Amino acid sequence: MLQKTTERIGAALWLLGFLVAETVRSVRENYQLAVISLVLAIALWFFVGTDQALSRQGTFPVQIPVELVNKPAYLEVYPPGSVEPVTVRISAPEDSWSRLRPTSFRAVADLRNAREGVQQVPVQVTSSDPAVRVLQVSPPAVTVRLEPIRQETFTVRVELEGTPPVGYINRTPTVSPETVTIRGADPIVRQVRSVVAVVRLESARSTVVQNVPVRPVDAQGTPVSGLTVEPELVTVQVPVEQVLVQRQVSVIAAITGDPAPGYWVQSINVDPAIVTIVGASEAVANVNNLRTEPISVDGLTSTQVRNVRLLLPDGVTVLGPPSVNVRLTIAPTTGTRTFQVAPSVVNLSPGLRAQIDPFDVTVSGPLPVLNGTDPQTISVTVDAAGLGPGSYEIAPRVSLPQGLTLVRVRPERRTLTISR
Q1: What share of the chain is helix, strand, coil (3-state, %, to 5)?
Q2: What's the pLDDT score for residue 55?
Q3: How far is it, in rounded angstroms, from Cα 221 to Cα 223?
Q4: Which candidate, 81, 78, 228, 219, places its Cα nearest to that of 152?
Q5: Is the same domain home to 98 and 162?
Q6: What total number of domains does the chain contain?
Q7: How much is the pLDDT for 4?
Q8: Is there a single domain that holds both residue 352 and residue 415?
Q9: Are 395 and 381 in contact (CB under 8 A)?
């Protein structure tokens, strides 16, 4: 046993010595190649060590959208935009990190072998910067649902928004082309019930011609997206014609009767005083003003406000309410009247007597007040304070009932005779 072990050790030592001798001999014979290999090994070690020291690893902070390529022509992604973006973990030199943008990466899912239905498709991410290495893609595969492509043809339906101005009407619109083709994933196309082209008619006073986009809508009128429409634009023509004309005319209040005696219609105010009438040209041409229904002022003694209808000729209408407010200001008629009034002597000393003739007092005021005035309500006085027997020229003092105004007193002075 010991002898066999000794023999094995001796054989191994011999083999080791042989290899060392051969290596030394090879180096001596090929020393230039050995030096080059050593230098390259050192350089490689230095480069790898330096690269590892300056590289940074981490997750790029922005998700990368996935581009689907080589999709079969008869299939479409459903629903549109349902493929989720991916997150990438990368290794890159520090200076490359500062220059990276989402556009620095391209994430691709190859649908070359895809089929109808739901499937997982691997995602390959590359960078436009060769110094960037993609270490991990998360998720490594995206879920893609593919549905058969469906194509249908629809007649374009025109929707009119708004109306032309008063006096104008629109006729039936025409569309060119009358039909369009929609194309997309089968479930989306089946939602479409019609396609519409919307035209606005506000302020239109002549035929409207517009190139408008076509919009597929569902049964509720909600737009359906994710479809291709061919053509995208159609030409819609909506004839607009003037059938009525407008004209502004004044309003005249038709007044009948008379106010109560002693009163008169001081003013008449109509609101609005001018209205706009609408009608065919021949009906409106000869209308210069509108009259109201008759308004009776019989027996009125105070101001009144009446809402009365307008009398419209045949074929003529008015913009806004067909009635106006009429304010009738009723005021008393004013006049003058002369009263002969015997004056009263005041402050006459005891034991003396006074004599003086009447004065003519002229007053003005509303006739109803004048007609109802009692001369005894008009006070004319002369003051005899401090006067003894004798004759004196005295000016009177006049006091009038409310509502009357003194015009004059004749004469301005009279002779007051005082005796015992």
Answers
A1: 20, 50, 35
A2: 81
A3: 6
A4: 228
A5: no
A6: 5
A7: 45
A8: yes
A9: no
Residues 6+ positions from 420 with CB-CB distance below 8 Å: 351, 352, 353, 389
Q: Which of 303, 332, 361 is the last residue of a domain?
A: 332
Whether pTM exceeds 0.70: no
Domain ranges, residue 67: 61-147
404: domain CATH number is: 2.170.120.30
Long-range contacts of 411-415 (CB under 8 A, 24+ apart): 411/359, 414/343, 414/356, 414/357, 414/359, 414/382, 415/356, 415/357, 415/391
Going by C-alpha positions, the residue among 125, 192, 123 that lies closest to residue 152 is 192
- Taking the chain (420 residues) in runs of 10, the rounded mean pLDDT of each run is 48 53 56 49 43 74 95 90 93 91 95 92 94 95 93 94 85 94 93 94 90 94 92 94 86 93 90 91 86 94 94 90 94 90 92 93 89 90 92 94 92 92
Residue entry with tokens 């407010």? 325
Is residue 160 within 8 Å of residue 228, measured between CB atoms? no
Q: What is the pLDDT of residue 247?
A: 87
Q: According to the model, what pLDDT value does residue 150 have?
A: 93
Q: What is the pLDDT at residue 34?
A: 47
What pLDDT does 18 receive? 53
Q: Which residue, 269, 298, 332, sits at the end of a domain?
A: 332
DSSP characters over 235-304: EEEE-EEE--EEEEEEEE--EES--STTEEEEEEEEESSEEEEEE-HHHHTT--EEEESPEE-TT--S-E
CA 210, CA 199: separation in Å to the nearest integer? 8
Please say whether the beta carbons of 338 and 360 come within 8 A.
yes
What pLDDT is attached to residue 126?
95
Return the number of other C-beta atoms located less than 10 Å from residue 16's C-beta.
Answer: 10
Please count the other Cβ atoms lying within 10 Å of the Cβ belonging to residue 141. 13
